[in-house]
Design a protein that fits this description.
Length: 318
């Protein structure tokens, strides 16, 4: 297989685009495409301050690398969850995020959950009804809270995450199976700011997971290969496998599923997006925040403290 641009040996063949590229032209193509998506969905400009949520994985570090190469003012935020999983998951991912930032002279904010709130995520989850069995609900809520807080306190214009096409298609698939209209309405490459919450964008939403893995590899980005131990057996992974089977039979199936959805939405199938899919719990059915938490200032559905503040007020602080 030869590179379409120069005829050298291709390192990747993207069947859905009928495009093979070499080691030199592939990362160039990714960066150009990312810029195109940032503009197309009006995500942010070069004058704005961007906060990249970095986990130490291939997607978020590749995203940060792409934004850095494109000349955006992009700082990182790493949230230490205190998850071990028998392989120092949190410590190792933090080390890799710090290494990445140091190599490029980039600024990385670090919020360590056990240090800040006195407990690791798994312990917090064990103590609450939300997290019994699986810490992901507590983890997601905590990460959203911290990301919103840091973006607001440090005056960033936009918060970006490394969700790729496989992530977006899996969420879309799950929500379509349930016709979860509230969530479908909110799934979007970019979401406007709300009181207590910054604008949010997903510049990688049209890149396949394997494209990001290939990008990290050619760019020599060292990332944590293992997923969080709690991701194993999740529904998202199950939906990803189904979508991969479809993709194998019909290259481009995932991309067209996602893009047709965006198009249908633009055509008015659902009301305009208002908030992030993962923020739904903090919002009413209409997608509007009904109240503001008196403690943290972030949006919440019920009057009084938000779920996060209620949870940490019961946490023994250190
Ligand atoms: S980090 Fe947290 Fe994920 Fe691990 S505990 Fe679950 S939500 S799986 S993205
Ligand atoms: Zn080439
Ligand atoms: Zn609160």
């Amino acid at each position: 297989m030869k590179c379409r641009k120069c005829g050298q040996k291709a390192i990747i063949n993207m069947r859905q685009h009928k495009l093979a590229l070499c080691q030199e032209h592939y990362p160039e193509w990714i960066v150009e495409q990312a810029q195109r998506f940032i503009e197309k969905y009006h995500m942010f400009s070069r004058e704005e301050r961007v906060l990249v949520a970095v986990s130490g994985g291939k997607d978020s570090l590749s995203l940060w690398d792409i934004l850095w190469r494109l000349g955006y003012q992009a700082d990182g935020l790493y949230i230490g969850l205190g998850i071990d999983g028998g392989f120092d998951y949190s410590d190792e991912s933090r080390r890799l995020a710090e290494k990445f930032a140091a190599e490029r002279g980039l600024r990385l904010h670090i919020v360590d959950i056990p240090e800040t709130y006195g407990e690791t995520i798994p312990l917090m989850a064990d103590r609450t009804t939300r997290g019994r069995g699986r810490p992901c609900a507590v983890c997601g809520m905590t990460k959203r809270h911290v990301m919103n807080r840091v973006a607001r306190d440090q005056e960033y214009d936009v918060l970006v995450t490394g969700h790729n096409l496989d992530d977006e298609a899996a969420v879309l698939f799950a929500n379509t199976l349930n016709w979860a209209v509230g969530y479908l309405r909110r799934q979007s490459p970019v979401l406007g700011a709300r009181t207590g919450m910054p604008r949010k964008a997903k510049p990688l939403c049209r890149f396949y997971e394997r494209e990001m893995a290939a990008y990290a590899l050619v760019r020599g980005i060292e990332y944590i290969y293992d997923e969080c131990p709690y991701a194993v057996g999740s529904k998202t992974i199950y939906y990803k496998e189904i979508l991969n089977t479809m993709e194998n039979d019909r290259p481009g199936a995932k991309l067209s599923f996602y893009l047709s959805f965006l198009q249908a939405k633009e055509g008015g199938l659902f009301a305009p997006p208002s908030i992030g899919d993962d923020e739904a719990e903090e919002y009413g059915a209409s997608g509007e925040a009904l109240h503001t938490c008196p403690t943290c200032g972030q949006p919440t559905t019920a009057p009084g403290e938000c779920a996060f503040c209620r949870m940490v007020s019961r946490t023994p602080q250190i």
